[in-house]
Design goal:
Blueprint: H1 2-35, H2 46-50, H3 57-73, H4 76-90, H5 95-109, E1 120-124, E2 131-139, H6 142-148, E3 152-157, E4 165-170, E5 176-177, H7 182-190
Antiparallel strand pairs: 1-2, 1-5, 2-3, 3-4
Helix pairs in contact: 1-3
Length: 208
C-alpha cells in the first residue's frame, strides 16, 4: 500500500513539476514585460486609457515597439538617426564599450552575421582526461589569432546556470565535435546532466 501511494505521488510530481516551472517562468516573463510599461507617462499608460489592467499587455507593446523600430530603421531617415546615435554612444567612455560588445553579440546571434553558438564540442577541461561541453563562438582574429596560432573561441557554460561560464581559446584540432543540437546541449547543462540527449537516429518521443 505504501509503495503504491509513493508511486502515485511520484507520478503526480513528475507531471506537476515541469508544468509548474513552465507556468512560473511564463508568469515571470509576463510581469517583467509589463513592468517595462512603467516608463510610459501615467496619462498615456494603457491601464489608464483602458481603465483596467490586462496581463501580458507589456509583451504586446514591446513587440509592437520593436517592430516599429525596425520599420523606422529601414527608412533613409531612420538609418541616419541610428548612425547619429551610434556616433554619440561611441564617444562616451565605458558606454561605448558596453554598446559595442552588445551590438557585436546582437549582430552575431540575431542578425545572423556570425558563427556563434552553432556547434557543440567537447573540450578537455579542467584537466586532461576530463571533458566539458562548450559552444564554438567563432574564429579568433587580430592579436588573439596571432598569439594563439589561430585558436577557436569556445564558450563553456557552467551548470545549472548557463548564463555564466568561461571563454576558452582552444586549437581546433583539440576540439571534439558533437552531433547534438545547441538546444539539447543547453538542456543537458541546465539539468545538471540528468536529461541526456536522445540517441542518434532515435526520435525523442520514441519508446526505448
Amino acid at each position: 500500500m505504501k509503495k503504491n501511494i509513493r508511486q502515485i505521488f511520484l507520478t503526480g510530481l513528475a507531471v506537476v513539476v515541469p508544468v509548474g516551472v513552465t507556468i512560473y517562468i511564463l508568469v515571470f516573463l509576463v510581469r517583467l514585460m509589463d513592468d517595462l510599461l512603467s516608463v510610459v507617462p501615467r496619462s498615456f499608460h494603457p491601464d489608464t486609457i483602458l481603465g483596467v489592467h490586462i496581463p501580458g499587455l507589456g509583451i504586446i507593446s514591446t513587440i509592437f515597439f520593436i517592430f516599429l523600430c525596425g520599420l523606422v530603421t529601414r527608412s533613409y531617415l531612420g538609418r541616419r538617426i541610428v548612425r547619429t546615435g551610434e556616433r554619440i554612444l561611441q564617444k562616451i567612455p565605458f558606454v561605448r564599450g558596453v554598446y559595442r560588445a552588445s551590438k557585436q553579440v546582437s549582430d552575431s546571434l540575431i542578425m545572423d552575421k556570425g558563427q556563434g553558438f552553432r556547434k557543440v564540442v567537447l573540450v578537455e577541461f579542467p584537466r586532461s582526461g576530463t571533458w566539458a561541453i562548450g559552444f564554438v563562438a567563432g574564429q579568433t582574429s587580430g592579436e588573439l589569432r596571432e598569439k594563439t596560432g589561430g585558436a577557436v573561441s569556445v564558450f563553456m557554460p557552467t551548470s545549472p546556470n548557463p548564463t555564466s561560464g568561461y571563454i576558452l581559446l582552444v586549437p581546433e584540432k583539440d576540439l571534439l565535435p558533437l552531433e547534438m543540437t545547441v538546444e539539447q546541449a543547453f538542456t543537458l547543462i541546465v539539468s545538471g546532466g540528468i536529461v541526456a540527449p536522445p540517441e542518434r537516429g532515435r526520435h525523442p518521443d520514441a519508446p526505448a
